[in-house]
Every structure is written in structure tokens, then in C-alpha cells.
Specification:
Layout: E1 6-8, E2 11-13, E3 17-19, H1 28-36, E4 41-43, E5 47-48, H2 49-65, H3 74-102, E6 107-113, H4 119-129, E7 133-138, H5 149-166, E8 171-175, H6 182-191, E9 196-199, E10 206-209, E11 214-217, H7 227-237, E12 244-248, H8 254-263, E13 267-270, H9 272-277, H10 281-296, H11 321-330
Parallel strand pairs: 3-4, 3-13, 4-6, 5-6, 6-7, 7-8, 8-9, 9-12, 12-13
Antiparallel strand pairs: 1-2, 10-11
Helix pairs in contact: 2-3, 3-4, 4-5, 7-8, 8-10
Bound molecules: flavin mononucleotide (FMN).
Length: 332
């Protein structure tokens, strides 16, 4: 019987299937269920700085409406702001603590911040609450087109440096593919002591309803074809960087998990497929990986992880553009 155990961010996982940060991991009873069906680890729903600020703003406006607050009296304003933040943060810390008490699998806390201001204090408190590791979901929207790529990228490194200084637990950074030199950025994160990189964050995208001529939001659930980009970049970076690589977006079945491991992923993260099929689907995915390993004669993940990474591959050009053009020229 195949041994699926692995290490990710210095933690021991019974298998490489991590449940991605999402509504699937926002309560203790859901996390218990995910563990019961075999999840290797979970990443908690992110703590959003944006969410705290919006919530605080809403409460302040409510208080104003009911005459309970004089905005000119700044101490009252500050109290309301701090109070709401504390409540939101307290709820999140409670989720970390309770999850750690209820499950044996690693619990990775997640922070999604807009600015670098609050990160360090959130991170320290999450560590104290018992998080086994932290995942920083960083996306600095490059609105200011006068800024150079380097200055945008520097923000990522600065946030990472601050958090790494503040905590002892391992830190992963979840990024988008939207960089002009993505490989360089991943190496830059490694130079700044990241423990792992999660490739890639998936954004809610805008869409347009042409019947009602209005803006809408595209499907929040991914489709399996979306995996190609993370497969390419995992394969390109595996063996080139000495950090863990978590593949995410579009991984919907056991076959996709095997592909990512062959490309060099340390672990995979899944959300959409579990939303669609329920937590029991985890068992099916893991059974596929285990059967495939038995069939191919692999006893451990180590024996085949990265076998088809670009660095190891006998056909490294497949991951580059040239092959893409050839593919199209054959396609009549
Ligand atoms: C409903 C929903 C909520 C999500 N919430 C978060 C979140 O709070 N933080 C985060 O980093 N990613 C979040 N994600 C993104 C997932 O973690 C994951 O990266 C993405 O869905 C791609 O994986 P998938 O193709 O398996 O769904 C969310 C995804 C979904 C579908």
C-alpha cells in the first residue's frame, strides 16, 4: 500500500491534499469533517483586513445614525473602530484555537491584507493562538501605473520580511501569476526566507451580462482547464528553488493531483472540487493517487515527485512557448 505522507512547511502531513482557504474551512465542525474524510491539512478561511475595516466603518455609521457616536469626538470613534476589530480578530483566533483542539491535522491560518500595516500584529496573535503555519495571500493591485515593477514586487518582500521577523512558525505566500517575471519573484520570495509558495491565487473575475447590460461576477468555482498555468509554473520552478510549492486552482480529481506531483508540487490545495462533491470526495481523490502509485510501483511520493519538472524532464521545452507554437501548427 502506497505511503502518501509528506512534509509541507516543515509540518508532517499524512497526505499531500490540503483544503484551500475558503468557506470550507471557516468553522470547526466543517474542519472536523474534512479531517474525517482524509484531508492532509487545512488552510483556514482568510482573515481579511478589508473585511475588518469595512465592518468597523459600518458599525461606526450605525452608531452615528442612532446618535450613539459623535464623529468629532475622536476617542469614541477610535474606541468603536478598535472594538470591532478586536471582535473580528477574536473570532478568528477562537477558530484557530478550537480547530487545533479538535483536529490532529495541521491548521494553517491565512491572512489577506491590503496594506502592510496590520499584518505583523495579526500574524503574532495567530501564532500565539496555535496556528501551525501562516499563509499570506498577498495581492497588491498595481493601480499606480507610474510605479515600477520592482517597487510593486518590493511590497511583497517587505510584507514577508516583517511577518518572518515577527513569528517563528513557517510562512507561505500565496501569489497570483500576474508578474512580468514570475520566476524571479518566486526566487525573490525564497531569498526573503519564505517557506513555501502557493501557485496561484484565483480571483473573482468581472463578467458582463449582455441581456441586462450590467456588470456581474464570473463563477467562483474553478474549472479543471484552469490547472494548466499552475502545472506549468510548478514544473518550471520545482528543483530550481529550495522551498515548498503548493499547487492550486483547477485541481479537481486524483489525476490532476498526480500530474502536479509529477511536475514537482509538494502538496496540492483544493477548494472548488470539494464544494462541488462534498468532503467525502477527498477519499476518492486519495484512493486514485494511492492506486496509481501501486500500479506504477511507487511506494512513496518522493520516488516520483518532480520526475516531470522542467529541470528533470527529458523534454524541457514542453513547458515553454516554442512547443505551444508547434502544437498549433500541427492543429489543422
Ligand atoms: C468560495 C471561495 C472562497 C474563497 N476564499 C478564500 C480566502 O478567504 N482566502 C484565500 O486565500 N483564497 C480563497 N479562495 C481561493 C481558494 O483558496 C483557491 O485558491 C481557489 O479557489 C482555487 O482553487 P480551486 O480551483 O480548487 O477552487 C476561495 C475560493 C472559493 C471558491
Amino acid at each position: 500500500m502506497a505511503d502518501l505522507s509528506t512534509r509541507y512547511l516543515g509540518l508532517n502531513l499524512r497526505n499531500p491534499l490540503v483544503i484551500a482557504s475558503s468557506g470550507l474551512t471557516d468553522s470547526v465542525h466543517k474542519i472536523v469533517e474534512l479531517e474525517k474524510h482524509g484531508a492532509g491539512a487545512i488552510v483556514l478561511k482568510s482573515m481579511f483586513e478589508e473585511q475588518i475595516l469595512m465592518e468597523a466603518d459600518y458599525m461606526v455609521r450605525k452608531a452615528e445614525e442612532h446618535g450613539g457616536l459623535f464623529v468629532e469626538y475622536s476617542e469614541t470613534f477610535d474606541y468603536a473602530d478598535v472594538h470591532v476589530k478586536e471582535q473580528e480578530i477574536g473570532n478568528y483566533l477562537g477558530l484557530i484555537e478550537k480547530s487545533r483542539n479538535e483536529v490532529h491535522i495541521p491548521v494553517i491560518a491565512s491572512i489577506n491584507c491590503l496594506s502592510s500595516m496590520e499584518w505583523t500584529s495579526f500574524a503574532t496573535r495567530m501564532e500565539k493562538a496555535g496556528a501551525n503555519a501562516l499563509e499570506l495571500n498577498i495581492f497588491v493591485m498595481p493601480f499606480n501605473m507610474k510605479n515600477s515593477c520592482e517597487s510593486n514586487e518590493k511590497t511583497y518582500y517587505q510584507v514577508l520580511q516583517k511577518v518572518k521577523k515577527a513569528v517563528r512558525i513557517p510562512v507561505a505566500v500565496k501569489i497570483s501569476p500576474y508578474f512580468s517575471n514570475l520566476g524571479r519573484v518566486i526566487m525573490g520570495l525564497e531569498e526573503n526566507k519564505v517557506d513555501g509558495v502557493v501557485l496561484f491565487n484565483r480571483f473573482t473575475s468581472p463578467d458582463i451580462d449582455i441581456n441586462n447590460i450590467k456588470m456581474t461576477v464570473a463563477d467562483v468555482i474553478s474549472s479543471p482547464v484552469e490547472m494548466a498555468n499552475s502545472l506549468r509554473w510548478v514544473a518550471l520552478m520545482a528543483k530550481r528553488v529550495n522551498i515548498d510549492l503548493a499547487a492550486t486552482t483547477g485541481i479537481h480529481d486524483g489525476e490532476a493531483v498526480v500530474k502536479q506531483l509529477l511536475a514537482g508540487a509538494t502538496v496540492v490545495q483544493m477548494a472548488s472540487a470539494i464544494y462541488k462533491n462534498g468532503p467525502a470526495y477527498i477519499e476518492k481523490v486519495l484512493a486514485f493517487v494511492s492506486d496509481w502509485m501501486d500500479e506504477k510501483g511507487f511506494e512513496t511520493l518522493h520516488q516520483f515527485r518532480g520526475k516531470l519538472s522542467q529541470a528533470k524532464s527529458v523534454n524541457p521545452e514542453v513547458y515553454e512557448r516554442l512547443q505551444f507554437m508547434k502544437y498549433f501548427s500541427d492543429y489543422k
